[in-house]
């Protein structure tokens, strides 16, 4: 176990200042469910951790009436997310992904910000967020900047976050009015496990049942969570026929760059991208019919 | 405690449903003390430095910097330990590596310091110079004639049983019945397949934890979450060269054992540290350490050739069993011998020949995980039966029924089988499951199928003592060396003593698992406790009862035969008015003799005869009792992903006599679930001798979401050799689970899978092949 | 098998309410709640299994919500209310859930039991009669190697039929 020092500043500005001061030897700690495990199993860890528990309103979930997007404070726990009435109604894909992480006693600690900042290729919340055109807000000494989530992930464990920045908010497109989202994954153990492959999708149909907006993203099949716009775009302006869905799934499979590791072979992961994409798109078609 | 059970003093206690009356209260309130919970004044934190190499010579160990660190109170290496070899069958192991390390995780040094942080810092300061040696990681590599040897002269080690050993083979066993060539000549169909199973972790949730202290005279006390305190005491006495009266082992509450808490691990290290530091020392393994060093189920490769006649009679089995036993012989010779017996035991096979090899590799030691050798053998045997049945166009149920062993038959080593209820379990399972009914084909594109498998399991015997003390007020205190592993042994002990003495279960208290205050018991291993300890307990209770009735006969001036003990009273048969409270008799007896009423019992289950001409270099030709079971399962397979869901699971097991049905159901549920984990997802993954998944994230045991309902059927075919007819139930439900599922997957999909685990990917791959 | 660094930042006082009693506890900055409970406060009823969030043996309630105490930083819980298995029974009276675990045979080795009880207590505080699926979901983070979960589910169902446990535990 790594012994680090702990700081709980009163404000976001103070937190950023501390991060800046410790110049790369400090990390934010949110729920600690990744950080503590890394310290324990790998004996790796920062010299200082900065907790934002004293700072209020960093876990607020709300709908931005102006844009229609949903905004989630980075320190919202995954349990909060899966239980939020707003998110259950407006962000079904994200809620499903949050629900699949770990277990209730883990989700009561784990935050959405931590899930993203940890930048695991299999991070559960990433595919549905990418599919819903999410952006992340990063707060640093110079103020805030917002970037699309797909520019946030740089590699396993690597993000666009500067050492002196805090991820403060995530915003994404909402379901409703002809739009719906969904997330599915394949594991070894059927329910409780890390994803071998995850597929998040969001579809918006026009009045005639043609796809107006399509988001599709994959988890655990590339060094980062992977949006597959080329596959998604095949649906634009199209009806959701079985044949078209199969085409999209094949394209998603082609875009995936899985590896073989102790959990699964690249071959199986590729095949599951196709299987899950078909499953998710068909289920969305079903959901949007009703 | 407010007992859930109303007083059972009036009615029979044996056979009644009893909850956790002995240990439940402490466990639901957090009061129970497990290995890591024992408190000591001034206790030091012990930690162990473990080898990072799978095979290396220890050039040098420099502990000077660690010793100089403030707060460090003792550092030990092999130089501090007596030069003694130990081991389950072969004495091939030291308690701390000497000159060589043979697996990643083997102890090299240990420290005791004022707290964990200091101890951990001290470990970092120990300099070990390793000279890496060529290593072998699979039995196939280890069997090559030019393979590097783990032990330069393995054959020279002392062994409790004569074994054929050479090279990296620590046991080469053989069994022969009849002439296989004749059997194959008579066969209409002959098939041959090779089945593979990986290493499996015990999976208890409590990592190993031990503490040790010495008193002023140097007498040692060790608190450990062991399944077998007397085995631990003997091993400590042997490895530390201390006479037994100077060694006390106290079994703490155990957070699951399943065979993984029998042999010594950190106990002698904690003891040596305590002796050196003259202070109490506690060593708590992390789960990461536990995964590396705390043994495993043997990985296996079994090739089985089998022949059957067109009328469905088995003719011949010929097979090779290879067990990967790791760096030391450990339980390897036993597991190999056992698997060979089990392969040929459920069914009558007139001609058979098996060879078995327990092979040393540079990996962790393998032990006796709940039914060692059982699942490996059953996968081969029961898959083969289904394949043969299909080839001759017969229902697998019929084939099993036709060939099932009956009472009076023998195992392949000639050990006689008593009270065999295989046929009963087959019929009971088939009736409940409705085996004849065709499986519904779902409309959602998924595939359903059914499968069955039978299993045989033989329990272990060994000695057990018991003492029953009837107090002045007629309540009883029971002393047994058998610890409560959670399997319910103290509940059964309570029931047996209450039954014999006419008491309620609330009138009996069980003291267990302390080598200083309880009689000898071999421990909770091999499903033996209810059978062997139960027998000793009954004897002890009957002994006490005899003394009580003798006194009562004198007082009441009646014949002994006319008296009985019931409802806390001594009754004169047929004359209710002459009943005397038990309390009066026991008070008188105590006052008269100046001591409590004591009953003594002891038991060694007799080993049935066997035929020494049938085997060579085999460690388990006979076992005191065997039992059988049948399981049936319906599965639903998603052909797109390879996911398998269990729709229905029926398990019928012969327990001889159900003393506590609640406990038996719990044992069956737990054993089946443990095997389901091995079936679908559990395996230790090694790369170059290094464990790649030493945690519960990537070592996947079933959770509440993956576990099905398990319908249990309890068959009672009493064994006249044991108390009340009981047979053990802890291990028997394990072996059939995996082949039943493999058979069901085949039935659903047409894909026959010969290797575990039956993970979605493996099932999916098999389905791809079938489709082609 | 990695070992720690020599860096050892100073311990400091944290105010924690444990089983309804507020106390100042000296904790190291990187200390987990599990370490504080077991090593600092000697409340050993909460079990250390994996220490990595996977087994649930260390589950306690924080302001009524179950969390894995092995991954929670003690200093992050300053001012919060923690309930451990030792805080369930009051004045020697078991909660209906604890009693049901005994009666149903839901306890074998008992090592998972404290964590199971905490997860189930939180569930029953929120849902008076949860479905079997909800029960299994609630305890999915609590590994049990002994029981196959069947009798544990039965015990939780039995306790649910008797009404919710003491609600003050799960504010
Ligand atoms: C048993 C178990 C099972 C799990 N199963 C899954 C699973 O199935 N799927 C899955 O995706 N994940 C799984 N996880 C991991 C999941 O719990 C985490 O990814 C979690 O969401 C991380 O959130 P946290 O708040 O705990 O992060 P922390 O551990 O606190 O932080 C993680 C990293 O992100 C940084 N960080 C956190 N928040 C911020 C912020 N706001 N700004 C800047 N940096 C920040 C930290 O410095 C740290 O480097 C599992 C974990 C456990 C223990
Ligand atoms: S000890 Fe905390 S989850 Fe295992
Ligand atoms: S009762 Fe042993 S782990 Fe659950």
Keywords:
heterotrimer; B: 772 residues; alpha+beta; Aldehyde Oxidoreductase, domain 4; Aldehyde Oxidoreductase, domain 3; 3 domains; 7-stranded mixed sheet; 6-stranded mixed sheet; 18 helices; 29 strands; C: 171 residues; Ubiquitin-like (UB roll); DNA polymerase, domain 1; 5-stranded mixed sheet; 5 strands; 29% helix; 15% strand; globular; disordered N terminus; disordered C terminus; binds flavin-adenine dinucleotide; binds FE2/S2 (inorganic) cluster
Number of strands of chain C: 5
The CATH topology name of the largest domain in chain B reads Aldehyde Oxidoreductase, domain 4
Which blocks of ≥5 consecutive residues of chain C have pLDDT under 50?
Answer: 1-6, 166-171
Q: Write down the secondary-structure element order of chain C.
A: EEHEEEHHHH
Low-confidence stretches of chain B: 1-9
Just name the CATH architecture of the largest domain in chain B.
Answer: 2-Layer Sandwich
Write the layout of secondary structure elements.
The complex is a heterotrimer of chains A (290), B (772) and C (171).
Chain A (H helix, E strand, L loop, with lengths): L4 E3 L4 H11 L3 E4 L5 H8 L5 E4 L9 E3 L6 E4 L4 H6 L1 H6 L1 H9 L3 H4 L4 H7 L7 H6 L3 E6 L2 E6 H4 E3 L2 E2 L6 E7 L6 E8 L10 E9 L5 E9 L6 E2 L1 H5 L8 H14 L10 H24 L1
Parallel strand pairs in A: 1-3, 2-3
Antiparallel strand pairs in A: 4-5, 5-10, 6-7, 6-10, 8-9, 11-12, 12-13, 13-14
Chain B lengths: L23 H6 L14 E7 L5 E7 L1 H5 L3 E5 L23 E2 L5 E7 L2 H10 L1 E6 L6 H5 L25 E9 L2 H6 L3 E9 L11 E6 L5 E5 L4 H12 L6 E5 L15 H11 L3 E4 L2 H7 L5 E10 L5 E13 L5 H12 L7 E10 L13 H18 L4 H8 L18 H12 L13 E13 L3 E8 L5 E5 L8 H13 L6 E5 L16 H28 L6 E4 L2 E4 L7 E2 H12 L3 E8 L10 E2 L8 E13 L6 E11 L6 H20 L5 E2 L2 E2 L19 E5 L18 H16 L10 H12 L1
Parallel strand pairs in B: 1-12, 10-11, 14-15, 18-19, 26-29
Antiparallel strand pairs in B: 1-5, 2-4, 2-6, 3-5, 7-15, 7-24, 8-13, 9-10, 9-12, 13-14, 16-25, 17-18, 17-23, 20-21, 21-22, 25-26, 27-28
Helix pairs in contact in B: 9-10, 10-17, 13-14, 16-17
Chain C lengths: L11 E7 L2 E7 L5 H8 L18 E4 L2 E4 L12 E3 L12 H9 L8 H14 L5 H7 L11 H12 L10
Helix pairs in contact in C: 2-5
The structure holds flavin-adenine dinucleotide and FE2/S2 (inorganic) cluster (FES) (2 copies).
One FE2/S2 (inorganic) cluster sits at the interface of chains C and B.
């Amino acid at each position: 176990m790594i012994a680090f020092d702990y700081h709980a500043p009163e404000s976001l500005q103070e937190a950023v200042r501390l991060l800046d001061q410790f110049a790369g030897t400090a990390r934010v700690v949110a729920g600690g469910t990744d950080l503590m495990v890394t310290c324990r199993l790998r004996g790796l860890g920062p010299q200082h951790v900065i907790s934002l528990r004293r700072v209020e309103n960093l876990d607020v979930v709300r709908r931005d009436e102006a844009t229609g997007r949903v905004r989630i404070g980075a320190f919202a726990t995954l349990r909060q997310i899966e239980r939020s009435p707003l998110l259950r109604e407006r962000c079904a894909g994200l809620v499903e992904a949050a629900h699949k992480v770990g277990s209730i006693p883990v989700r009561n600690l784990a935050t959405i910000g931590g899930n993203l900042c940890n930048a695991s290729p299999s991070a559960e919340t990433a595919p549905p967020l990418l599919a819903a055109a999410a952006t992340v807000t990063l707060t640093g000494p110079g103020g805030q900047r917002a970037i699309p989530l797909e520019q946030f992930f740089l590699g396993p464990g690597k993000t666009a976050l500067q050492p002196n920045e805090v991820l403060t908010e995530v915003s994404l497109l909402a379901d409703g009015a002809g739009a719906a989202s969904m997330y599915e994954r394949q594991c070894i153990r059927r329910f409780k496990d890390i994803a071998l492959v995850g597929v998040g999708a969001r579809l918006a149909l026009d009045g005639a049942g043609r796809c107006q907006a399509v988001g599709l993203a994959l988890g655990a099949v590339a060094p980062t969570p992977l949006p597959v716009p080329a596959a998604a775009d095949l649906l634009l302006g199209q009806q959701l026929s079985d044949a078209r869905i199969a085409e999209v799934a094949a394209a998603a499979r082609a875009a995936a760059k899985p590896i073989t590791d102790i959990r699964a072979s690249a071959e199986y992961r590729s095949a599951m991208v196709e299987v899950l994409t078909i499953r998710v798109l068909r289920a969305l078609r079903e959901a949007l019919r009703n | 405690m407010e007992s859930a059970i109303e007083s059972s003093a009036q009615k029979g206690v044996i056979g009644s449903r009893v909850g956790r009356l002995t240990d439940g209260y402490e466990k639901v309130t957090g009061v129970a003390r497990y290995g890591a919970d024992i408190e000591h004044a001034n206790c030091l934190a012990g930690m162990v430095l473990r080898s990072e190499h799978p095979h290396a010579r220890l050039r040098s160990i420099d502990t000077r910097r660690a010793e100089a660190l403030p707060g460090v109170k003792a550092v030990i290496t092999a130089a501090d330990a007596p030069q003694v070899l130990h081991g389950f069958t072969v004495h091939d192991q030291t308690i701390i590596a000497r000159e060589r390390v043979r697996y990643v995780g083997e102890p090299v040094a240990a420290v005791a310091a004022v707290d964990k942080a200091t101890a951990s810092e001290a470990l970092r300061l120990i300099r070990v110079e390793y000279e890496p040696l060529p290593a072998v990681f699979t039995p196939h590599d280890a069997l090559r004639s030019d393979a590097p040897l783990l032990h330069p002269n393995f054959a020279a080690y002392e062994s409790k049983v004569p074994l054929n050993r050479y090279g990296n083979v620590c046991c080469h066993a053989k069994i022969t019945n009849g002439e296989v060539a004749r059997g194959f000549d008579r066969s209409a169909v002959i098939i041959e397949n090779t089945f593979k199973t990986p290493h499996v972790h015990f999976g208890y949730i409590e990592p190993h934890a031990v503490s040790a202290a010495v008193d002023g005279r140097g007498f040692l006390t060790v608190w450990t979450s062991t399944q077998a305190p007397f085995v631990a005491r003997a091993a400590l006495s042997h490895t530390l060269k201390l006479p037994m009266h100077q060694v006390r082992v106290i079994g703490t509450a155990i957070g699951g054992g399943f065979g993984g808490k029998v042999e010594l691990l950190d106990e002698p290290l904690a003891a040596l540290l305590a002796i050196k530091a003259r202070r109490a020392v506690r060593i708590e393994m992390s789960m990461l350490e536990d995964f590396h060093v705390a043994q495993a189920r043997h990985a296996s490769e079994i090739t089985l050739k089998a022949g059957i006649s067109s009328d469905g009679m088995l003719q011949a089995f010929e097979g090779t069993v290879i067990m990967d036993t790791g760096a030391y012989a450990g339980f390897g010779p036993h597991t190999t011998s056992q698997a060979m017996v089990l392969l040929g035991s459920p069914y009558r096979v007139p001609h058979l020949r098996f060879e078995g090899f327990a092979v040393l590799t540079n990996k962790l030691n393998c032990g006796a995980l709940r039914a060692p050798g059982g699942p490996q053998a059953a996968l081969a045997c029961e898959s083969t039966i289904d394949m043969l049945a299909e080839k001759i166009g017969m229902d697998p149920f019929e084939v099993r029924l036709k060939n099932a062993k009956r009472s009076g038959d023998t195992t392949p080593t000639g050990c006689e089988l008593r009270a065999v209820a295989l046929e009963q379990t087959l019929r009971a399972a088939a009736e409940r499951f409705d085996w004849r009914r065709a499986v519904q084909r779902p409309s959602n594109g998924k595939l359903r199928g059914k499968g069955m498998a039978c299993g045989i399991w033989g329990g272990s015997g060994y000695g057990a003592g018991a003492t029953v003390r009837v107090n002045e007020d007629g309540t009883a205190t029971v002393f047994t060396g058998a610890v409560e592993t959670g399997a319910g042994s103290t509940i059964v002990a309570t029931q047996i003593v209450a039954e014999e003495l006419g008491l309620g279960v609330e009138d009996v208290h069980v003291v267990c698992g302390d080598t200083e205050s309880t009689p000898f018991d071999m421990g909770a291993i091999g499903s033996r406790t209810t059978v062997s300890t139960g027998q000793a307990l009954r004897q002890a209770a009957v002994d006490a009862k005899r003394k009580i009735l003798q006194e009562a006969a004198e007082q009441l001036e009646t014949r002994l035969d006319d008296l009985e003990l019931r409802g806390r009273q001594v009754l004169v048969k047929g004359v209710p008015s002459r009943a005397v409270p038990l309390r009066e008799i026991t008070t008188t007896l105590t006052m008269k003799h100046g001591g409590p009423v004591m009953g003594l019992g002891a038991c060694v289950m007799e080993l049935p005869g066997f035929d020494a001409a049938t085997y060579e270099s085999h460690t388990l030709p006979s076992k005191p009792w065997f039992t059988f079971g049948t399981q049936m399962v319906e599965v639903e397979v998603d052909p797109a992903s390879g996911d398998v869901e269990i729709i229905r699971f029926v398990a019928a097991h012969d327990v001889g006599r159900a003393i506590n049905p609640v406990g038996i159901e719990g044992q069956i549920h737990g054993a089946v679930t443990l095997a389901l984990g091995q079936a679908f997802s559990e395996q230790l993954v090694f790369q170059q001798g290094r464990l790649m998944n030493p945690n519960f994230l990537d070592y996947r045991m079933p959770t509440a979401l993956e576990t099905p309902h398990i319908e249990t059927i309890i068959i009672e075919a009493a064994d006249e050799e044991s108390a009340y007819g009981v047979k053990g139930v802890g291990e028997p439900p394990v072996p059939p689970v995996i082949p039943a599922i493999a058979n069901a997957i085949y039935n659903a999909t047409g894909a026959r899978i010969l290797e575990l685990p039956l993970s979605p990917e493996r099932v999916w791959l098999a389905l791809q092949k079938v489709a082609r | 098998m990695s070992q720690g660094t020599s860096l050892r930042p100073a311990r400091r006082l944290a105010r924690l309410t444990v089983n309804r009693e507020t106390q100042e506890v000296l904790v190291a900055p990187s200390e987990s709640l599990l370490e504080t409970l077991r090593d600092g406060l000697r409340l050993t009823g909460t079990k250390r299994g994996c220490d990595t969030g996977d087994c649930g043996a260390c589950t306690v309630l924080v302001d009524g919500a179950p969390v894995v105490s092995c991954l929670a930083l003690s200093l992050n819980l300053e001012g919060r209310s923690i309930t451990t298995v030792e805080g369930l029974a009051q004045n020697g009276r078991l909660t209906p859930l604890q009693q049901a675990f005994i009666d149903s045979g839901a306890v074998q080795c008992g090592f998972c039991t404290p964590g199971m009880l905490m997860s189930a207590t939180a569930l029953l505080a929120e849902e008076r009669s949860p479905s079997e699926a909800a029960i299994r979901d609630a305890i999915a983070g609590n590994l049990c190697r002994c029981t196959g979960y069947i009798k544990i589910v039965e015990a939780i169902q039995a306790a649910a039929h008797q009404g919710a446990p003491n609600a003050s535990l799960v504010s």
